[in-house]
Amino acid sequence: MLGTLKYQSSWSKFDQIIVSNSLLAGADGIKGSDQGKIFDADYLLEPDLKFMGLKTNRTNIGFKYNGGFSDHLPVYIDIISVP
Questions:
Q1: Is the CB of residue 5 less than 8 Å from the CB of residue 71?
Q2: How many domains does the chain have?
Q3: What does the pLDDT look like over 18-76, one tens digit per residue?
Q4: pLDDT, tens digit, for every residue of 17-28?
Q5: What is the DSSP letter of 22?
Q6: Burial 34-67 (b: 16+ CB within 10 A, else e)
């Protein structure tokens, strides 16, 4: 996936993750990766018939209930234990 949000045929990396310096440095026995990732599981996406490819499976489209999850894909980082 090339982004977290799709408008027409263009994906954008709109969402962000903010972490403290101590998490990046590995303080207190945990360390966060310095690269955010996009969670793009199949159930979060649906075919985009108008602009080709896939689009987010949205909860609402205007005032109409669509039954999906969100208009943005979630972002995450890996957190690991360090000695």
A1: yes
A2: 1
A3: 888 888 888 888 888 878 899 999 999 999 999 999 999 999 989 999 999 999 999 99
A4: 888 888 888 888
A5: H
A6: eebebeeeeebbeeeeeeeebbbbbeeeeeeeee
Closest CA to 1 of 31, 57, 39: 39
What is the span of the domain harbouring residue 43?
5-81
Q: Which pTM value belongs to this model?
A: 0.80
Say if residues 37 and 77 touch (Cβ distance below 8 Å): yes
> In terms of Cα–Cα distance, which of 37, 44, 51, 39 is closest to 70?
44
Q: CB–CB of 76/27 below 8 Å? A: no
